[in-house]
Every structure is written in structure tokens, then in C-alpha cells.
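Two proteins, back to back. First:
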Amino acid sequence: MQIAIVLYPGMTALDAIGPYEVLRLLPGVDLRFVWKEPGPITTDSGVLILGATHSFDETPTPDVLLIGGSSTAATVAADKVVLDWVRKAHETTTWTASVCTGSLVLATAGLLDGKPATGHWMAHSALAGLGAQVQRDQRIVQVGKIVTAAGVSQGSTSGYGLQPKSRDKRSRKQSNWPSNTTPNRPSTAVISARHPQRPSARSRCCSRARAQRSVSQIRPPWFASRQRWLSWPGPVRSRRRGRDGD
């Protein structure tokens, strides 16, 4: 399985590194950071430098294509070399994905024409102008093999949706371990921000009981002894005070 994560000058590093950490431990994965040519890529901070391991020409048919976003994504979306490669690679991919404003590149390439999609909220108007049906209340949107994520945190989440469906328990543990995610929890490609799942009354009660037990375990010894003293019956306390006063 070959995964190509597009790097470009001025990109937001976490848009690439988040999904990378989720996908890099998949068995037999060939993970590549791609750009026009291999070499160092300076991110939007101007300090952090990532390395492109392969060129577009060396990676013509990846199984997974992912492109992150940044404030310079519009410039990349106007680059004919990038757009030609995205269109050609998309023909054979299993998944084509974007994070944040990376959806602008997919839209400019014509991959989102008339399709539901999302991205950074500041890019929604531009995304709609490029022909996409912007889902403003969605964090992750999947249409066929195209997955668009709204921001950096959803980029990591979408990585789980890009994993192969048929993986054994050991493989799930290996790929989910870096982000401390329960390996048996099913991942969903479409998550609604408008209707979050609410805990049941039973789960809230159990959580409250566990919290109370945790607090009782960290109380200092003198607090417990004072509680016992205050819980003694009135006559006993008065007799003791009488003895202390004699």
C-alpha cells in the first residue's frame, strides 16, 4: 500500500504529520512525502523543515493521496504541475483526501465539482466558488473515495478512516498506538458537529461515582480523621471536651 502525502513550501506541518502518525505503522505501508523534487520543505512557521522523500514523477499511482492546507494553499492550487499530478493520481487511488485548506487544491483540480466537501471555515466561500457543496456543519465529509477534513485535529481522525477495512486486531493496535486510541473502536468517515453523542444517564452516574472514589483516595490522612471526629455523636464530643477542659 503506497501513501503519498504532499508537502509544499509554507504548508502547515500538523496537517501532514497528524495523518502520518496514524498511517505510518500500517503493515507493509510505503509512505512517501512527495513534492516536485525530493528535498527540504520549509513549513509555515519558517523554522520547522520537513523532507520530501520522492518526486511526483516517482509516485505516479499512489493508493492514498493526501494534501494538507495552509495560508499558501491557494498558491499551490494555481500550480499546474501539482494539479496535473493530483488529477492523474486520483484516477487510480483508493482514497483521495485533504486536510484544512487542502480541499482548495482538490476543488481547483475539478475533483469536488458538485460534491459535498468541507475545509477550514475561512475557505468555505472560496470552496463554494470552485463548485463544491460546502458542508459548514461537518468536520469530516466522505463522498465515494474522496475525504475532506475541516482542520488539523480532524486530519488525524480522518487517518483512521483511510486505513484498510480488513485489518487484524494486532494491526489496529500497532497503527492506533501513537495517538492512544482504542484499537477496537470503529472509525467513521463522516462526523457531525451539530449532533454530538451524549452520554446516557447510567454512564454519567458511573462517571460521577468513579470521580468520587478517586477524590476519596487522594485525601490526606488528617482529613479522614477529622471527618470521623466530626461524625461522632454529640454527647461523646461534649464529654471529650469536658475532659480536655478539666
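And the second protein:
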Amino acid sequence: MNKYISLILFSIFFVACSNESDLDMNILPDGKYPITFSADNLIMPVSKSFDENGIAGVYMHDIDGVTIPLSENSNRQYVYSNSQLRAALDDYRRYWSRADQEVLVTAYYPYNSTMSGSTFEINDLSNQDSPTNYDNFDILHVSSSVRFSERKTTVLAFDHLMSRIVINLTGSNLANVNSVRIANTFTKGTVNITTGTVSGGANKKNIIANKYPDDSNTYRAVVIPGQTITAGMDLIYVTTGKNQKTYKCTLASDVTFEPGKQYTFTLTIN
């Protein structure tokens, strides 16, 4: 479950004889070797292909912090199109400058314009009823160092930062299901791109789960990891019929949600 996406980073490496002296001096010609991203077989956690024109946020800096300082390469937009991830603006494009250069690449999806430094806020997880809302909350992240000298394809494998709950409904009363909700979980949190973590601790309320597009009896929702639902607490509410009858799923033992993990519950509604 942890790794749904692969992002391939490679350097275009065509070295002519006239450039051998540059390599010997360890200095590469300006603008000659772009740091280029390519995406292959990107499968989103919602069981569909990577969105055309979808935007990821990318941080990139030299390991020594000199050639490509982080302050000039924070939260740059990279657009997915035709299996390529390209800088949204020419000013965001960066080039290899030394043959021994090592670059730290940190990326996340989907892009968030409210980033402050290396963090942004999750303000309200409560409504995941639409696929778009669900997708926006299922945050993916990767951080890896890449060397120019490797001259090979480097796969950046994204992890899910959130936890996911899946509810499978069975029984004779499924046609009358009005809603499925996740109870007693945080709906606000903070995402830290540097550490690749999500922290919560405020505003517990119900989360409206999203119905799988291809399965009318299965629902899903992402929740903030690190929180514990203790034994005896309600976790899932299923509301049915005109009279809004509610079925409750109460935990028999403690559950602590871990990032990148899925928790599946099968409930019988009769």
C-alpha cells in the first residue's frame, strides 16, 4: 500500500568530445544538462491514471546548499503531460553544473499553493464525499538524493502520508444506505514536506466517506495518522432509510493509524 507511484528522474547525458575538458575540470557548461523528470506508469491511489496536467510540488537543492540553494527552488510547480513532468515556468528549470554534483529532490502531490516554508495546513477533512475532495487529501511524498555521476535512471517512489479506511458493506439493506461516516478522528492537521509527516490534534468530527466509483458498496476515507481510537469508541456510522436509522461500528480493541497503511472493515447491514 505504501508505494503507489513511481517518478523517474534522469539526466540527459550526451557528451561530445569537445566537452571532455569540461568534465575533466568537473565543471559542466551552463544550460547544457537539464535536470529532467520523466513519469512512467503513475497509478494514483484512486485507481486511475495520473491526472493529465496534474501539478506536483518540487523542492530541489544541492546537497552542499551552494549551487542550487533551497530558497530559490522551493515548492516549484511541475506539470504532468504526455508522461513527462515539466517545470511549469522556464525560471523553475534547473541544470547540472558539476560532474560530482548531488541534488536532494523532495516532491509531493497534489500541489498546495498555501505552503509556508515547508508546511501547509489541512483545514477540514470532514467532507470526502466527492472523488475530487478525496484525491486532494490523499497526499503523496518522496525525498531522495540524486547524483549526476550515476548516469542512470533513478526511481523516486512516493509514499502515502495519510492513513486510509475502507468500509465494505454487505447485507440485505444496502439499497437504502444514505451515508457512511468516520467518527472520532481529527479533521485538521499540518503537513511537513521536509520530514514527510502529517500531524493532527484538533477538531474531531465526523468524516463523510467517499463511495468507490466502480463499487457502490465500498466506501473510503483518508485520516490523519498517529491518532489512536480506543476500544469501546465508535469509528463508523452507516445511516439508512427515510427515517435515517444509524448503525454503529464500535471498536473491540485500540487502533492507532499509521501513515501509508489501509484499515479495512466489513459491515453487514440488515
